[in-house]
Design brief:
Oligo-1,6-glucosidase, domain 2; TIM Barrel; 554 residues; 16 helices; 29% helix; globular; binds 1-deoxynojirimycin
Length: 554
Amino acid sequence: MAGKWWQKAIVYQIYPKSFQDTNGDGIGDLQGIIRRLDYLQDLGVNMLWLCPINVSPMCDNGYDIEDYYHIDPSFGTDEDFEALIREAGSRQMKVIMDLVVNHCSYRHKWFQDVLRNPASPYASYFIIREGFGGKEPNNLRCYPGGSAWERIGNSNRFYFHSFAKEQPDLDWENAALRDEICTMMNYWQDKGVAGFRVDAIGNLKKSDQALSRTRFEPDGEDGLTSLAPYVLMQDGIQDYLKEMRDRVFKPHDSFTVAEVSVPEHKLLEFIGPDGYFSTVFDFSYTDIDVEERGGATWKRPWTFREMKEKIILSQMDVQKYGFASPYLENHDQPRSVSKYIPSRDRSYESVTALATMYFFLRGVPFIFQGQELGMENCPFRSIEDFRDPVALQRYAQALERGEDPEAVFAYLRERGRDHGRTPMQWDSTENAGFSEGTPWIMVNPGYVQCNALSQMREGHSIYHYYKDMITLRKKEAYASVLETGWFVPVETRDDRLFCYRRENDSQSVRVLINFSADYVRVPENLMTGEVLLSNREASENGRLMPYHAIVFSE
Ligand code: NOJ
C-alpha cells in the first residue's frame, strides 16, 4: 500500500464556528479561516478538515444539514468557500469537508415535504414506520437520550433518528437517495475538495430488528435500550460503502477518514488497499476515560499503562491492513491536556511529551485547533455556560427525572463537548482575538497566558514544539520511515514509559517517553542514537527526566 499521496498529509481540524470571526457577529467564518491561512502554513500542516459548513439550523452545530449544496450564511458565501479552497491551495494545503449523510436536518426540503404531505415521494428517503399500540414502534434510545422515534404530526407514523429528533436518519436502502448523496459528494469533489471526514458512517445500515415492533429489554431506568448494537456496523453496510467508494472516492483519488470503530477482522475491507476509506479513527484511547452506565456516559478511572496497551493494539491491528489517523482531540472531546495530564503536572514538558507520543505513531496525524497551543478545558461556571444541545438536554433530563443535576454538571465540566468548542486563542486582546462582537460561547479565560501570538514570539513554546514535530515528519531524510515505516513497540518493563520504533528496511527511529513526574531509569540501549527531537535541553545519564520525550535516529 505504498505511494498514496495522502500518506504525506498532516491534518489540522477547524471548528469554523470558533476559529476566527471577521464580521463581528460572534461566530467564526470562512473569511476568518482565510485570514489565518498564513498561520497554518507557518505551523506546517498541509490539509484542513472543516467541520460542517453547509446551510443548517445548527441544532447540532451543522451536523444537521438543511441544504447540502450551499454554505451557511453565518459562515459566509459559496464564493468564500471557493476562495478558501483556492487560497489554501496556493499555500500547499488541501481542504476536506465533513460529510454528514447518516442523517440530515428536519429542515431539509425533503423532510419538510414529508411533514406536509403524507404521500410525499420523499417519504422513502427517511425511515418511517407505523406506531405500535399508539406509541413508538419500539423502545430504542437514540444516542443523545430519549426515544429514537418521533411522531409525525398527529399521525400514527414515526420517523427514526439515531441522533437528535432534529436529525432524521436517511434511508440508505433507497437507491434514489444514494444517488442523490453520491451526486452531491461529486459536486464538492469537483469544486476542489480533496475528500471527506465521514460522520457517523457506521450507522448507515439499520438491522431489521432496529426497525421492528419489538419490546427490547431496557438497559436504563427510562425503559429504553441503546440503539447502537442494532444500527452500528450491520451486515449490508458494505454495499453502501462500496457504492461511495466506486462512484466518488476512487475516481477522485480522495482522502477519506471515517468516524467508525472497526473490529480487526473488518479492517481489510475498510482500509485495505481496496478499502472503502483511506483511514479510520480509533476511539479506544480517546474514550479511555468514559464508560456507559444505565444508558448514559460517565467518567471512569484509567491508567497510562492501559492507554499504552490500547494504542499498541490499535497500531498493530491497523498496520496489517492500512493506515490509522492518530489524534488526541476533536470537537467532541475535552482538551487532551486536561484529560490525560493530572493538573499538578501540567507543563510545557508534559504537554509536549503527550504530543510526541501520538504524533509519530503510524498514520495520518490530526491536530485539533488550539491543541498546538496546549489549550485546556474551559472552567465553565454553570450549565448556562454550555452551548452543546446534547449537554443541555442531558442536564434537563436529569432535572426532569429527579436525578442529581450536580453529578451531570460535574461530568460535563470535565467531559462536555464544549471544551473543544470555545474560541481559538489567538492573542491576549479581548475575546482572545477571536471576535470583536460577543462570542457565541464563552472564551476560555486561560487565553491571557495561552495564545498563539505569545507562543509564536516565544522560542520555547508548545506551538514551536508542534512546528518542530511537523518539520521532522516532513524532513526528507526521515519522511519515508515516519510516513510509512512499521510501528514496533519496545518493551520497557516500566508502566511510566512508552517506547516504540518506526522502521523500514533501511532506517529506524525510536520514540521514548516518560509519561510521569518521576525521574525514570531507562535501559542503556534505549538512550542511544542521534537525538532528532527532545522536549528538554539537558539529558541525564541513563535516566529520563519528568515528562521527558526524545526521538532518536538509530
Ligand atoms: C459525530 C460528530 O462528530 C458529532 O459532533 C455529531 O453530533 C454526531 N456525529 C452526529 O452527526
